[in-house]
Design a protein that fits this description.
Length: about 450
């Protein structure tokens, strides 16, 4: 009997079959939530590399295609690849700093970035089996701390959205605050007065209402949509053959290590939310999908891929834990990559609309972490210190991104990631206080 068959027989929430309409609507919610992040990476890197608007638009469509395929593989699973849980994949922000630096290097350019992505993906495929063994260093104390940090690290994103977005002419203007408050209020009211199906799509309802109101207020910009083709297929190696340079390749390999640390925390968080245990074998399959997606992404004109933390909040918020929802979402991403005009409409959602939804969902991630911390002996002063210092260090790049400016540039993927900082500190302090202490064996198993 296969693992999936056993899980289905045991009634695993990840294998739940939903009515088609609910499946599509909840899947579309996932797309709306991660779309801004998926589009941001190719936008930033494309501008840094000096690409034209049409070339950047092609980068975005390429990213949507790879994200869609990777999401389907991660959720459904193909052989030894894919964690078979409700996971959304997309271009990783962890690599942005390194890629922008590469774009400014003489002789590197966009083809050098793709080459570094391919090499790093291959490196990730080689080390994924070994990285999966670190799951034993993530007992509930560490997992709960990391998950709480994920929610807290995402809060600034939601607040920036709610205030109108980073590029807003008048950040925090009343119309932005009104829109984000309207979306948040709609989500809260749906969850208070309605049940079942309606609560599962409460985020979609809130965002749809916000979009309609924003459009009526003249805040939805669809200029330039007419110039986009109706149908466009992403072709491999559109920008020519990739090139390989030592420094960019080494930098991107470091990024893959950071992505693996972040993804491990996210997969463990999802395991707690869905009630499915994340054993080393499952973790290996999930990390292998991250690495394989990055490897093929370089050939398909896009960048390193990883699981998206914000979508874990949606799983927690809606209570819909079926992996077939993210399979549907992956299908939507693939469709959007072929229909530039449709992708344009989704991209036109005002940041303030996303902000109202983000506050609720990212807060749910943090709440999930706090719930997990209830499983451990949080009265123990050493455990309190672990939580306090780990989250505190994770907040450093969130509160002051320039705090570690004096450190070497190669450390940026670590020092600029609040999630990675929290995970590293929590694992090290757990080693110091528990695993190497007199409670070693118990702490390793997650018992105190």
């Amino acid at each position: 009997m296969s693992e999936v068959t056993e899980r289905r027989a045991a009634g695993s929430p990840a294998d739940q079959r939903l009515p088609l309409l609910q499946l599509l609507l909840v899947g579309f919610q996932h797309v709306l939530l991660m779309y801004g992040g998926a589009v941001a990476v190719p936008l930033i890197v494309g501008q840094a590399a000096g690409l034209s608007r049409d070339e950047i638009a092609f980068l975005i469509n390429a990213d949507l295609l790879v994200a869609g395929i990777a999401t389907v593989v991660q959720s459904l699973g193909i052989g030894p690849v894919g964690i078979r849980m409700p996971v959304m994949m997309g271009a990783s922000f962890a690599a942005v700093g390194s890629m922008v630096a590469m774009a400014g290097m003489p002789g590197v350019g966009i083809d050098g970035i793709f080459g570094a992505t391919i090499a790093a993906g291959f490196f990730g495929m080689l080390i994924a089996p070994f990285m999966s063994r670190i799951v034993r260093f993530f007992p509930p104390l560490v997992t709960g701390t990391v998950i709480t940090s994920i929610g807290m690290c995402l809060f600034p994103v939601a607040i920036n959205w709610a205030g109108g977005g980073k590029g807003a002419a008048h950040f925090g203007a009343l119309e932005y605050l009104f829109l984000s408050s309207l979306v948040l209020a709609a989500i809260l009211l749906v969850n208070r007065f309605l049940k079942g199906f309606w609560t599962n799509v409460s985020v979609l309802i809130g965002m749809l209402l916000g979009y309609i109101v924003a459009s009526a207020m003249g805040m939805v910009d669809l200029s330039g949509m007419d110039a986009r083709p109706l149908f466009e297929v992403v072709t491999p190696l559109h920008f020519g053959a990739p090139s390989f340079h030592l420094a960019p390749v080494l930098s991107m390999c470091l990024v893959v290590l950071i992505i693996f640390v972040e993804s491990t925390g996210m997969f463990l968080a999802l395991g707690k939310i869905t009630g499915d245990e994340i054993c080393p074998k499952r973790l290996r399959r999930g990390l292998l999908c991250d690495a394989t997606a990055s490897f093929f992404a370089g050939f398909m004109n896009t960048f390193t891929h990883s699981s998206f933390a914000q979508n874990i909040g949606l799983v927690q918020m809606t209570g819909v834990r079926s992996r077939f929802v993210t399979v549907a979402a992956g299908g939507f991403l693939i469709l959007l990559s072929l229909l530039p005009k449709a992708a344009y409409v989704v991209a036109s959602i005002p940041p303030a609309v996303l902000g109202g939804a983000g506050i609720a969902m990212f807060g749910m991630v943090a709440a999930s972490g706090i719930r997990i911390l209830h499983e451990v002996d949080i009265v123990d002063r050493r455990n309190q210190l672990l939580v306090a210092v780990s989250i505190g260090m994770g907040m450093v790049p969130v509160v002051r991104p320039d705090f570690f400016a004096a450190l070497p540039a190669w450390m940026e993927p670590i020092t600029h990631s609040g999630i990675a900082m929290t995970a590293i500190w929590a694992v090290l302090l757990n080693l110091l206080f528990n695993i190497l202490g007199e409670r070693g064996r118990d702490a390793l198993c997650g018992h105190h």
